[in-house]
Specification:
Layout (H helix, E strand, L loop, with lengths): L4 E4 L1 H13 L12 H7 L4 H17 L4 E4 L24 H12 L6 E3 H15 L12
Parallel strand pairs: 1-2
Antiparallel strand pairs: 2-3
Helix pairs in contact: 1-4
Length: 142
């Protein structure tokens, strides 16, 4: 049986790092999907996007054999994003910068395949070296 490789772009790797660090990937999304929130949040398919994003994130973190391929361009998260038309690889800063900063910060390469275990190690190393969770964060000034 072949495993499906999950394709992610740079700034979505930072998203995973943030979810891993605060453990929010494991939280139940059902309150967000209740009818109370549907009218407030379901513009342009945002609730369906959140539901599918939560399922993909949970799959990545619970399936320790999950493989992630780093790509440049639309990825498996972009595939169900209601705003995908505004999320183009050719879009000027900060979109490309978010991808590049994440890949550089976590020392990842486009077209390479990583296990979730390898990515978690890179997340931990980055936080230990910088004091912040991902390159998308801004360091706190003291």
């Amino acid at each position: 049986m072949t495993r499906k490789i999950i394709k992610l772009r740079g700034h979505h790797i930072s998203y995973l790092a943030e979810k891993y660090d605060d453990n929010t990937w494991a939280k139940d999304m059902s309150p967000l999907l209740s009818t109370t929130y549907i009218n407030h949040y379901d513009f342009n398919g945002q609730l369906e996007f959140l539901r599918r994003l939560n399922l993909l994130t949970e799959r990545i973190f619970t399936d320790r054999s999950a493989l992630i391929k780093i790509i440049n361009g639309k990825d498996d998260i972009c595939a169900f994003c209601p705003d995908v038309k505004d999320c183009r690889p050719a879009k000027p800063e900060p979109m490309n910068f978010g991808d590049e900063a994440s890949l550089r910060g976590f020392n990842l390469s486009v077209r390479e395949v990583y296990s979730i275990g390898e990515l978690i190690e890179k997340f931990r190393d980055y936080k230990e070296k910088t004091g912040i969770v991902s390159p998308r964060e801004t360091p706190q000034t003291h």
